[in-house]
């Protein structure tokens, strides 16, 4: 068993400057500043409902638009997840969750398979929630899937309000990831017939 499942990632490009500290076995507390209010709210919800600890500070080129900031935060969070989870010995590997939010119901399933793949089934009826472009939700989860090398399925079962739909996605992803990263006493080494994840 790995004692300290924590990662610190710094990533600087001409578009964004990101500093993140992520802890799998955290307490749900977060300190987030991306410059995008709604995105902060989503990452705080992710941290809270996955019982992770997340400190994420991003200075991005928001004078262009929110694209680089959201995508690059996804890349960094994915790298942090991958590094913090480490060798994956003794963990459940799969996780899934349904999260309701009033009229909205979202399903998310994840597999820490070592192979990136995103299936994203959602339609938005507004272009923005606050300063957050709704088309960036898919980009964010796509970035996580390839930088964490994990399989993510997100499906909106029902929903009307775009704020509810996106928030339920972040919470469903958090709960699924929390389950997948949990230790199970019955798992000896890696949970794979192939012997590698
Ligand atoms: Mn909200």
UniProtKB/TrEMBL annotation:
Keyword Amino-acid biosynthesis among UniProt keywords: yes
Biochemical pathway: Amino-acid biosynthesis; L-histidine biosynthesis; L-histidine from 5-phospho-alpha-D-ribose 1-diphosphate: step 6/9
EC number of this enzyme: 4.2.1.19
GO cellular component: cytoplasm
Compartments (UniProt record): Cytoplasm
Transmembrane regions: none
Record GO biological process: L-histidine biosynthetic process
Xref: Pfam families: IGPD (PF00475)
Family of the protein in this entry: Belongs to the imidazoleglycerol-phosphate dehydratase family.
CDD domains to which the protein is assigned, alphabetical: IGPD
Organism this protein belongs to: Lachnobacterium bovis
Domain of life from the UniProt record: Bacteria
The protein, known as: Imidazoleglycerol-phosphate dehydratase
Gene3D superfamilies attached to this UniProt entry: Imidazole glycerol phosphate dehydratase, domain 1 (3.30.230.40)
Gene Ontology MF terms in the entry: imidazoleglycerol-phosphate dehydratase activity
Lineage start: Bacteria, Bacillati, Bacillota, Clostridia, Lachnospirales
InterPro entries in alphabetical order: IGPD_sf, ImidazoleglycerolP_deHydtase, ImidazoleglycerP_deHydtase_CS, Ribosomal_Su5_D2-typ_SF
Any coiled-coil regions, as ranges: none
């Amino acid at each position: 068993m790995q004692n300290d499942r924590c990662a610190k990632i710094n990533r600087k490009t001409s578009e964004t400057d990101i500093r993140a500290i992520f802890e799998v076995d955290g307490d749900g507390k977060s300190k987030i500043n991306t410059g995008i209010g709604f995105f902060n709210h989503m990452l705080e919800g992710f941290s809270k409902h996955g019982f992770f600890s997340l400190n994420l500070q991003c200075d991005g080129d928001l004078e262009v638009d929110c694209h680089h900031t959201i995508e690059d935060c996804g890349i960094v969070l994915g790298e942090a997840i991958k590094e913090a989870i480490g060798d994956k010995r003794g963990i459940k590997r799969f996780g899934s969750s349904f999260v309701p939010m009033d009229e909205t119901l979202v399903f998310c399933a994840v597999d820490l398979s070592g192979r990136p793949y995103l299936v994203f089934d959602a339609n938005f009826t507004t272009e923005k929630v606050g300063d957050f472009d709704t088309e960036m939700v898919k980009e964010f989860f796509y970035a996580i899937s390839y930088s964490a090398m994990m399989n993510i399925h997100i499906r909106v079962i029902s929903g009307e309000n775009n704020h509810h739909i996106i928030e339920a996605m972040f919470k469903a992803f958090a709960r699924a990831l929390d389950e997948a990263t949990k230790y199970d006493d019955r798992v000896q080494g890696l949970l794979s017939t192939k012997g590698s994840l």
